[in-house]
Amino acid sequence: QSICKPIQAVAIQAICTTIAMAPSPSPHTQKFWDDAAPMIATTEKHPFLLSMVDGTLPDEKFKYYMLQDALYLEEFSDCLTRLSHAAANEEDATKLRYFANYAKEAELSLHGSFFDQWNTTTEGVTEMPNCLLYTSYMKRIVTTKSYGHGLATLLPCFWVYLHVGKRMLKMREELGDSVNRSPKFDTWIDMYSSDDIEEKVTTYRAMVEAACEAADEATRKEMQACFNMCCKLEHMFWDQALNLMKWPDLGDR
């Protein structure tokens, strides 16, 4: 399914054209990635992700993950919208609003299709510890730091998902028909390894790159720290799902 699903046909067509023409990745964001590479290499081998590919992940854990991820995406979308108000120009503001809408519409429609199969919703579901840690950190940076800090903070959600999606696609191809895998897992892999997601990542990276070019060295180092923290929080998000993490029972209600 194309990411160019109309919201407002003329505006979105222009955005999609911009995405298709987005420039190649640049050195500042590559430095971010290289610095975080050891963490990312660990994450791509996370047992939660590997067990999706080999078909052994219990449905209960995938359901837990999707419910938590739906809550996360609501906050992620809000952060993108907040950043759009701080964008240096209307073109970038429009892209950020588009990405915010995509997170709420296209990505959450994937979650919703699974929720229909499970006959469940996020109603009454609360953010578990690592989810709340991630969304709280993300929102704090976006609301209290510079525009560039905010962009760098949200980049791992785009880029790490594409990276692990591509890795999982390759592993799935290598396994062939030797495993019995839930169709839900295949649908998830197909989405996050897609050319559509790659185009989005390329476009968003270009925006981060421009912010890096406009920043001084001290700010770029802080942006790197934000990127690294969110790479770590991505890993912890899958830890949480693998372990079905709950809040401790302290006798509260």
Number of strands: 0
Task: Pick out the low-confidence regions.
Answer: 1-24
Order of helices and strands: HHHHHHHHHH
Distance between the termini: 43 Å
Radius of gyration, CA atoms, in whole angstroms:
18 Å
Helix/strand/pairing category: mainly alpha
In terms of DSSP E residues, the strand content is under 5%
**Largest sheet geometry:** none
Shape: globular
Measured as a percent range, the helix fraction is over 70%
Number of helices: 10
On the 0 to 100 scale, the average pLDDT is: 90
Question: What's the layout of helices and strands?
Answer:
Layout: H1 9-20, H2 27-43, H3 47-53, H4 59-86, H5 90-118, H6 129-144, H7 147-175, H8 183-192, H9 195-214, H10 217-242
Helix pairs in contact: 2-10, 4-5, 4-6, 4-7, 4-10, 6-7, 6-10, 7-8, 7-9, 7-10
Keywords for this entry:
single chain, 253 residues, mainly alpha, 10 helices, globular, disordered N terminus
Task: Kindly describe this structure.
This protein is globular. With about 250 residues, it is mostly helical. The longest helix is centred in the middle third of the chain and has 29 residues, at about 90-120. It starts with 8 loop residues before the first helix and ends in an 11-residue tail after the last helix. The protein is about 75% helix and about 0% strand.
